[in-house]
C-alpha cells in the first residue's frame, strides 16, 4: 500500500535522469505519464459506449428499420446523409478562390490583413502558452504563488470557444450540405486533443524555442515514414532541406553556454511528449484529409472536430473532478482567467485566419507566413522570458529557417513545372 506511491513518485526522476522542478514534485499524481493514462481512461469511458452503440445500429440495419423522433439524429451521427465524393482534386481544402478583376492594392491589403491576423493570433498564443504553463500566479513577497498544472482544462477552453466560433460562422454563412457521419470526426478530435495536451505538457520540461524547432523539423519523421512504409520517392532538394533542418536542430540542442538555465535543458520527458505531439498531429491531418473527401467546408470540419473535443474533455474533467478545481483556480487568480480566455480567442480566430489565407492566396504563401511566425515566436520568447541562446544555437535556428524557406521555394517551382508536364508523366510525390 505504501510502496506504490513511492515508486510512482520516483518515476519522473528515473525517466528524465535529472531533478525536476519543485512544482512538479508536489505529488506522484502530477507526473505526466500518470495524467496521460487518467485522461485516456476518461476518453475511453465515452469512446467505448459510443463504439458499441454505432455497431448496434449498423447491425440492426437502422436505416431501413429505424423510426421515431431520434431517427434523423442517429442517421446523421452514424450513417451520414450523402455518398462520399470520389472525384475531388484536392482532398484537404476546397479550390482556392482566384481573384477576378481585383486591383493590386486590394490584394496587397488582403495579404497584409492575413499576415497581420496570423502573426497577432499565434504570436500572442505562443507567449501566453508559455506564461500559463511555466510561471506562477498570485506570487507575493511572502507567498511564492502557485502554478496551473491541468493542461486538459486549457485544451477544453480552446475547444469550447473554437466550437462556438465555428458554429456561429456556419449559422451565419452558406455552407455545403453536410454528408459525413458525425462519429468520424471523433477520431481526428481525439488525436487533436492528445496532440494539444502533449504540446502544453512539454513546456514543463523543455523551453519554448526547443518546442518550436522540434515542430518545425517534423518533416523528417514524415519523410522517413513515407520512405519505409509507402516507398515514396523524393527529390534531391527534399533530402537536402531535411538534412539542413536536422543539422540546425542538432546545433541548437547540443549548444551550451555558461549562463544556460534549467529551463533550456531538454529532458527525456520533454522529448517523449514532443514525439507524442508529432505523432498525434500527423494522424489528425491525415484523417482530416480523408474526411474532406465528403463535401464539406473547412469551417464545418472545425465545428465537427470541436464538438467531440468538447465532449471528450468536459467528460474527462468531470470524471476526475478537475473541472471544478480549475474553475476555483480561475476564481482565485483573475490574471489566469484573462490569460486562458485570450489564449482561447487567439486559437479560435487563428484557425479562421488559416482557412481564409489558404483560400485567398494558397498554401505556399500561408507556409511562408507561418514559418516567419515561428522565427518571431522564438525571438519573442527569448526576449520576454529570458531564454539564453548561444551563438551556435542561434546559427542552428537560422539554418532551420533557411531550410524551411528553401523547401517552400523549391516546392512552388516543382508545382509550376508539374503543370507543364506531358499528360503521361506524373510528378514525384511530396511531403
UniProtKB/TrEMBL annotation:
Subcellular location: Membrane
GO terms for MF: 3'-phosphoadenosine 5'-phosphosulfate transmembrane transporter activity
Superkingdom as given in the UniProt entry: Eukaryota
UniProt KW keywords: Membrane, Signal, Transmembrane, Transmembrane helix, Transport
Pfam families: UAA
Statement: the UniProt record of this protein carries the keyword Ion transport: no
InterPro entries to which the protein is assigned, alphabetical: EmrE-like (IPR037185), SCL35B1-4/HUT1 (IPR013657)
Transmembrane feature ranges: 33-57, 108-128, 153-172, 236-255, 261-280, 301-318, 338-356, 363-386, 392-410
rRNA-binding found in the keyword field: no
CC terms in the record's Gene Ontology section: endoplasmic reticulum membrane; Golgi membrane
Membrane topology: Multi-pass membrane protein
Signal peptide range: 1-17
Protein name stated in the entry: Adenosine 3'-phospho 5'-phosphosulfate transporter 1
Organism of origin: Toxostoma redivivum
Encoding gene, per UniProt annotation: Slc35b2
Amino acid at each position: 500500500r505504501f510502496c506504490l506511491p513511492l515508486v510512482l513518485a520516483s518515476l519522473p526522476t528515473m525517466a528524465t535522469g535529472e531533478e525536476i522542478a519543485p512544482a512538479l514534485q508536489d505529488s506522484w499524481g502530477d507526473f505526466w505519464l500518470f495524467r496521460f493514462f487518467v485522461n485516456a481512461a476518461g476518453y475511453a469511458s465515452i469512446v467505448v459506449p459510443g463504439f458499441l452503440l454505432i455497431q448496434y445500429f449498423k447491425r440492426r440495419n437502422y436505416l431501413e428499420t429505424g423510426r421515431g423522433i431520434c431517427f434523423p439524429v442517429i442517421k446523421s451521427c452514424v450513417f451520414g446523409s450523402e455518398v462520399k465524393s470520389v472525384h475531388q482534386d484536392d482532398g484537404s481544402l476546397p479550390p482556392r478562390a482566384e481573384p477576378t478583376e481585383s486591383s493590386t492594392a486590394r490584394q496587397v491589403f488582403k495579404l497584409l490583413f492575413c499576415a497581420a491576423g496570423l502573426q497577432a493570433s499565434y504570436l500572442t498564443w505562443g507567449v501566453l502558452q508559455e506564461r500559463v504553463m511555466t510561471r506562477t500566479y498570485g506570487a507575493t513577497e511572502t507567498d511564492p504563488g502557485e502554478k496551473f498544472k491541468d493542461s486538459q482544462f486549457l485544451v477544453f477552453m480552446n475547444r469550447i470557444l473554437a466550437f462556438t466560433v465555428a458554429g456561429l460562422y456556419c449559422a451565419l454563412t452558406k455552407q455545403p450540405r453536410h454528408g459525413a457521419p458525425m462519429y468520424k470526426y471523433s477520431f481526428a478530435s481525439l488525436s487533436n486533443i492528445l496532440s494539444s495536451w502533449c504540446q502544453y505538457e512539454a513546456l514543463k520540461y523543455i523551453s519554448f524555442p526547443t518546442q518550436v524547432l522540434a515542430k518545425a523539423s517534423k518533416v523528417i519523421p514524415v519523410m522517413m515514414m513515407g520512405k519505409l512504409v509507402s516507398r515514396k520517392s523524393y527529390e534531391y532538394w527534399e533530402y537536402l532541406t531535411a538534412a539542413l533542418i536536422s543539422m540546425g536542430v542538432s546545433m541548437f540542442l547540443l549548444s551550451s553556454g555558461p549562463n544556460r538555465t534549467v529551463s533550456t535543458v531538454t529532458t527525456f520527458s520533454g522529448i517523449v511528449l514532443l514525439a507524442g505531439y508529432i505523432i498525434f498531429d500527423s494522424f489528425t491531418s491525415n484523417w482530416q484529409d480523408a474526411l474532406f473527401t465528403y463535401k464539406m467546408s473547412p469551417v464545418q470540419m472545425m465545428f465537427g472536430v470541436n464538438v467531440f473535443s468538447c465532449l471528450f474533455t468536459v467528460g474527462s474533467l468531470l470524471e476526475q473532478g478537475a473541472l471544478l478545481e480549475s474553475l476555483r483556480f480561475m476564481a482565485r487568480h483573475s490574471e489566469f482567467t484573462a490569460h486562458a480566455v485570450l489564449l482561447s480567442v487567439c486559437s479560435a480566430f487563428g484557425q479562421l485566419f488559416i482557412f481564409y489565407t489558404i483560400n485567398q492566396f494558397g498554401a505556399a504563401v500561408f507556409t511562408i507566413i507561418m514559418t516567419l511566425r515561428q522565427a518571431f515566436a522564438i525571438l519573442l520568447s527569448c526576449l520576454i522570458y529570458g531564454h539564453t541562446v548561444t551563438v551556435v544555437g542561434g546559427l542552428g535556428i537560422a539554418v532551420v529557417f533557411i531550410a524551411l524557406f528553401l523547401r517552400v521555394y523549391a516546392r512552388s517551382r516543382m508545382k509550376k513545372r508539374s503543370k507543364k508536364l506531358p499528360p503521361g508523366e506524373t510528378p514525384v510525390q511530396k511531403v
